[in-house]
Specification:
The structure is a single chain. The longest helix has 33 residues. The chain has one domain. The chain is built from three helices and no strands. The chain is mainly α.
Length: 83
């Protein structure tokens, strides 16, 4: 996210670089989701959280991943400027 945001904000990245960085960011979001989901479930089990609290934690986790994916897709789908 950081790379795509910096490239977009400084205006020095072309459309291909912006798309490449957005694809990289989407891969990072997917990896983060896969790596962090199992420890989240383990923490819910270890702390003995009730179903509403567990659902709220998983919901926040999914909301975070959705937000990050939306930001990356927004950078990916942004039209490039004509030279």
């Amino acid at each position: 996210m950081i790379f795509a945001t910096i490239a977009e904000n400084i205006g020095r990245a072309g459309p291909h670089a912006r798309r490449a960085l957005a694809i990289l960011d989407l891969g990072c979001v997917a990896g983060f989701g896969l790596i962090c989901f199992e420890p989240l479930i383990l923490l819910i089990y270890l702390f003995g959280l009730s179903t509403p609290w567990a659902a709220a934690l998983v919901g926040l986790f999914v909301a975070l991943l959705t937000l990050l994916a939306w930001l990356a897709l927004r950078a990916f789908l942004k039209p490039g400027k004509a030279p």
